Every structure is written in structure tokens, then in C-alpha cells.
Amino acid sequence: MNLIESLREIVGSSGFVAEGDAEPLLTDWRGRYRGKACAIVKPSSTVQVAQVLKLCAELGIGVVPQGGNTGLVGGATPSEAGDAVVICLARMTKIRAIDTGNDTVTVEAGCTLQQIQELAASVDRLFPLSLASEGSCQVGGNISTNAGGTAVLRYGSMRALVLGIEAVLPDGRIWDGLRGLRKDNTGYDLKQLFIGAEGTLGVVTAAVLKLFPALHSRATAWVALDSADAAIELLARCRAVCGDALTSFELMSRSQLDVVYEHVPGTRDPLDGQSPWVLLIELADPSNDAPLQAMLEDVIGAALEAGLALDAALPASAAQAAALWHIRHIVSEANVRCGISVTHDISLPISQIPRCLATTEAKLIEAGLVDGARFLYVGHVGDGNIHSIVLFPHAAWARVSDADARVDAIGKVVNGTAVQYGGSISAEHGIGRAHRAELAHYKSAVEIDMMRAVKHALDPDGRMNPGKLL
């Protein structure tokens, strides 16, 4: 049986990616990971996905599922061996159903996050997942990585937003779990096996997603602070005063903001640019006349009087608020323009964030691993997720003799310290290729055994996304 001819027969000429068009699908968007594939296909239906997986099972060939290819840990990039088929879901973009009575939408895996957001808005609903890459990331990838974003504080990560999924198993069987039920107490919640599994158990082809009332009132603030400890205290105050209206609570270091202002034209600091830390806070409510502005002004005013906050800017228009959010969302692109960023996606008990960051910096400096680099921080502090970044300007990186060893050494310090403070080495980016070895180190033997048992039960030959996660 000829693999290439069989794949062409399944997906058609429009679903087969020619060699000259393959490069973007074989490289992650930051250029960190590059691989090869024996073929790349773009099926247009679940049936085609099933046929491709059945063919690969018969031939003993690995499969790498791929969504928008916006990940940060190499999870969607094939290995250099070139012995797997990449299945890109970009053509599967159908909206299968929208049920405003049940507040759900059923979509195929290739729909972008922005498409789903806009669809929800068209029926006066909200799909709350929000990421910097929302214009290009796809819902299948969001599910497979358990994406988080800026609204987890209020709505939860993708695990909380998915009611049902459709997936193709490694042997080509289709599991139809597209049920829009909020209660279904009939045994194992099988969809949760695929959420966060990074394509290692099967290919997610569609999902039933929760919708929420559209948000018609918003209030935003940009708050200057002198310490991360102050952010933790202000978070407690905001929660006490604002309750469920508190939607986003984003912390950024001055060092990170400086990189944005230096490398992204049109961005500017709304305050004096001196404070070591800044918070971007947003309140939101479905009603048109919720007193959010007054509520936010009261809590920030009290923080200023108590010396907890140094200064604050409250935008007077939606355009001004959007400009603040642009600063927050553009950080990854700014870092790429500035140099080489060694990025870590740690999760911590909120109370331990300041101590963990300070300890990590001291350890890295003492180990001599960060000469010429900057420490940058940006994160969803309301849910304990901090992106800890060591950024090497290009000139400093050129002096690093063994890049891979340096990245590994920095990672061991950052992740090891996070675990020391009761945290996790990945909050929302996943494991992929980047953290596979570390996962085995930090997870207990019992946890690894249970994960391997699930993997073996569904993918006994280890063909799904080989070399990732486990």
C-alpha cells in the first residue's frame, strides 16, 4: 500500500500539502523547533480524519495533530526523524450548531478562537477564552492544550468551557461525545482525557462549548505598584469589593513593559514609566448600567490612600482600554523582536508568587546563567499563572557557547524553584517537546504510571504525537 497515493485518495488534491508549502507546518512560530514529515494532510471532515488514522494504524505510522501552530512548547511540531504524518485541522471550520437556549455552540476543531468569539457576540453571548493568538489559534489546539488566557480568574480554563467533544481514536474509530450537558453522571468523564492531552490520545475534531451572557459594561485600570506583594494584597481587595465582576487581573514587570515600548511602535506608557510593576485590571458585567467604574475607582482610590498603589490610569473610552490590552497581548511578539527568550509557564499558590520569583532570580544569578539577560514577568496573577522569562538580547545570546545546555539549566532552576514553592512547571502552555524530561522528574512515579496506563489503553503502539508529553 502506497502511503502518499492513499492519503491523496482520502483527502483529495486540495487536502494534500505539497513539499513547497510544508515549511510553516514543520516549524513552530518562534522558530525554536523544526521537524520533518513523511506527509502533511488537511482533511475536511471527521470521516477523512478517521480514514487517515486508520491508514496510519495499518501501516504503523505516527501521527502529529496540528491546529493553528501557535504553541510555545513544540507540541505541534513533528520530530526530525520524518516518520510521521502531520494532520492539520485548518479546513475543518464548520459551525455545526448554536443553541442559545442551552447556551452552547458546537464547532469543528479548525475554527479559530476569534471566529468563535465573534459568533457568540452575534447572538449576544460570550465565549470567554481570550489569548494573544486568538486570531490564528484553533479550538482543537485550545482543547488539546487546555488553554487558559486572561479570563481564567472568572470563567476557568478550557476544561471548564467544554461540555462535549468528538474525537478520532488512534485506530480510526470515531467517538461522538458531542453532548451539551452540564450534568452527566454516567461514569468516567471521557472528554477530560483529551483536554490537555496534547494530541497523544487521539485527534479532537469537534466540540460543544459553553456560552455566557455577553458583557455590556466594562471598567479597566492600569495600576502602578512597587512590588509583587502589593499585587497580591490588591487582588484580595478587588475580590472582596468586586466579586464576580473581577474578570482579569494581569501583572507585568517594568522590564517586560520596557521591551514592549522599545520594540513595538505606537505603544507608550500611560503613566510615568517608573514603577517596578503594573497591573491591568478589568471588571465586566452583562448589564448595561452596572456601576463598575465607580466600584473600580473606589477600590483603587483606597489602595492609593493606603500606599498599596503608586498611581493609576483609568481609560475614558473603549479605544483607550483596547490600547492597554494591546500592550499586554503584544509581549511575546516584542520579546521575539528583542532577542532570545527562555520562557517558563509556571503556576504557583498566589501567596507564594513574590517569594518564588525573588528566590529564582537569586539562584540564576548565583549560578552565572543570566549574564547580559533581563528578567521579565507577565501573568494571570489572579489564578497563580506567571510567565517567567529570561530574555537574552541578540548580542548577549551570541556569547552563549552551548545554547541547549543553557536553556536546560535555566529551566531546571525556574521549574525546580516553582515546585519547591508548591507550584507546577506548566500552567497553560503544556509539555510538548520542551518539558518532557522535566515532567518525568517532577511528577510522582504513581502519576506517571497512571498517565502511561491511559496512554497505553488508547494508543498502545505510541503512534499519537510521538515524542510529546510522555
Automatic annotation (TrEMBL):
Which superkingdom does the taxonomy of this entry point to? Bacteria
- Species of provenance: Paraburkholderia ginsengiterrae
The entry assigns this protein to a family as follows:
Belongs to the FAD-binding oxidoreductase/transferase type 4 family.
PROSITE patterns linked: FAD_PCMH
Domain annotation FAD-binding PCMH-type: ranges: 33-214
Listed Pfam families: FAD-oxidase_C, FAD_binding_4
Q: Mind listing the UniProt keywords for this protein, alphabetically?
A: FAD, Flavoprotein
Return the protein name: Hydroxyacid dehydrogenase
* InterPro entries per record: FAD-bd_oxidored_4_C, FAD-bd_PCMH, FAD-bd_PCMH-like_sf, FAD-bd_PCMH_sub1, FAD-bd_PCMH_sub2, FAD-linked_Oxase-like_C, FAD-oxidored/transferase_4, Oxid_FAD_bind_N
PANTHER family of this UniProt entry? BLL6224 PROTEIN, D-2-HYDROXYGLUTARATE DEHYDROGENASE, MITOCHONDRIAL
User: Is Flavoprotein given among the entry's keywords?
Assistant: yes
Q: Which SUPFAM superfamilies match?
A: FAD-binding/transporter-associated domain-like, FAD-linked oxidases, C-terminal domain
